[in-house]
């Protein structure tokens, strides 16, 4: 509909442009040298650019402006956030064993030079209602990851029958290993909650996610519990024929929306299988970017991005 309207508007503007050119090039102006010069200068430097814009942009603007804005959004919309994730889903023509993954980056040393940290994957663990969003690989040396960006929550489980979530954290098992790359680790439950994946997305999460410097011997006494209610402003986020789009915020006790946890931006230019998500995390908490308020919704968003990627890359039936 937009392109149809743009076509007729371009035609209408084209008629006006043609009329102006006929008037500007008419014989009447040629009897006065100064008048002819004035019209020529006005036509070249003012009228011609305006008329060209009014004829071209209504119909062709979508193909010209949208890619430019999409590229800018992809490159810069997350610059003010401490971290971001790129959700990379399987396309229609990819092998069935291709894994849907989320690549995590921190905007350090700068937003223009982000550092890729680790990768998570989403998997249907039983072919039914149970899914798992878990650590797949480290993309930089673990010892070089800042404490605030090191994920100890390394597995989130979703039960779509009961609409419950839970998660496990991985901790160092001895003092000499704390905060370093080690094989001597222990896994402990550190998150529970419920979620509603319907149009009005909602999460209720109770967690005690430790930093990587926490020893398993001191857990959970050394880590306070945190409870969060998260939701979105608009009653829709999952559009089927489009990539998921949401801004997830903390729901305050008075029912007002508060701190922004994460928000989706755009799919990658020329690649609808990738979706960029800006990550802030819960306000006032150390290690905010790797807390369950980030991982729990992100796994769900990756599931829906995977559905959209298959839809958007399937061959045309024409």
From TrEMBL:
<feature type="signal peptide">
    <location>
        <begin position="1"/>
        <end position="17"/>
    </location>
</feature>
<keyword id="KW-0812">Transmembrane</keyword>
<protein>
    <submittedName>
        <fullName>Uncharacterized protein</fullName>
    </submittedName>
</protein>
<feature type="transmembrane region" description="Helical">
    <location>
        <begin position="41"/>
        <end position="66"/>
    </location>
</feature>
<keyword id="KW-0472">Membrane</keyword>
<keyword id="KW-1133">Transmembrane helix</keyword>
<keyword id="KW-0732">Signal</keyword>
């Amino acid at each position: 509909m937009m392109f149809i309207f743009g076509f007729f508007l371009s035609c209408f503007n084209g008629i006006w442009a043609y009329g102006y050119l006929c008037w500007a090039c008419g014989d009447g102006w040629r009897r006065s040298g100064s008048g002819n010069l004035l019209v020529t200068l006005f036509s070249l430097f003012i009228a011609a650019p305006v008329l060209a814009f009014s004829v071209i942009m209504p119909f062709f603007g979508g193909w010209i402006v949208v890619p430019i804005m999409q590229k800018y959004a992809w490159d810069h919309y997350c610059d003010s956030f401490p971290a971001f994730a790129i959700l990379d889903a399987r396309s229609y023509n990819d092998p069935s064993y291709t894994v849907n993954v989320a690549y995590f980056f921190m905007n350090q040393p700068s937003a223009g030079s982000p550092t890729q940290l680790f990768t998570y994957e989403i998997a249907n663990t039983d072919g039914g209602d149970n899914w798992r969003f878990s650590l797949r690989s480290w993309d930089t040396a673990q010892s070089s990851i800042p404490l605030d960006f090191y994920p100890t929550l390394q597995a989130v489980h979703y039960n779509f029958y009961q609409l419950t979530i839970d998660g496990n954290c991985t901790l160092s098992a001895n003092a000499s290993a704390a905060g370093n790359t080690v094989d001597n680790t222990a896994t402990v439950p550190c998150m529970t909650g419920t979620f509603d994946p319907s149009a009005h997305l909602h999460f209720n999460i109770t967690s005690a996610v430790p930093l990587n410097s926490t020893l398993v011997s001191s857990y959970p006494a050394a880590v306070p519990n945190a409870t969060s209610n998260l939701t979105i402003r608009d009653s829709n986020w999952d559009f089927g024929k489009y990539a998921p789009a949401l801004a997830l915020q903390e729901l305050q006790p008075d029912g007002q929306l508060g701190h922004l946890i994460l928000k989706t931006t755009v799919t990658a230019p020329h690649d609808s299988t990738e979706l960029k998500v800006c990550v802030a995390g819960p306000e006032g908490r150390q290690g905010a970017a790797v807390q369950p308020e980030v991982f729990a919704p992100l796994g769900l968003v990756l599931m829906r991005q995977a559905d959209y990627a298959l839809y958007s890359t399937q061959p045309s039936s024409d």
